[in-house]
Specification:
CATH class: Alpha Beta
Shape: globular
Order of helices and strands: HHEEEE
Number of strands: 4
Number of domains: 1
CATH architecture: 2-Layer Sandwich
Strand content: 35-45%
Structural class: alpha+beta
């Protein structure tokens, strides 16, 4: 498991946190907050590796957004 563009490309919408961890490993940081008004929870996983940073956003335990920057 490593933080690479190829592995990030394997992450797709509606994956579970366990599926994401199976590809990227455990996040450096994890934060869960309630979603106001609509309800449910939002969880943000943050990964760091050297100068690479990736953020994965889950809503109600389903992956909805991913952002990443990788050192060249």
């Amino acid at each position: 498991m490593s933080l690479t563009q190829a592995n990030l490309d394997k992450i797709h919408v509606d994956m579970s946190p366990a599926e994401v961890k199976s590809i990227l490993g455990d996040p450096a940081e994890s934060k869960t907050d309630p979603i106001p008004i609509v309800g449910g929870t939002q969880t943000i996983y943050t990964y760091h590796s050297g100068s690479s940073d990736v953020t994965i956003i889950f809503k109600n335990d389903l992956m909805k957004e991913k952002q990443g920057t990788f050192a060249q």
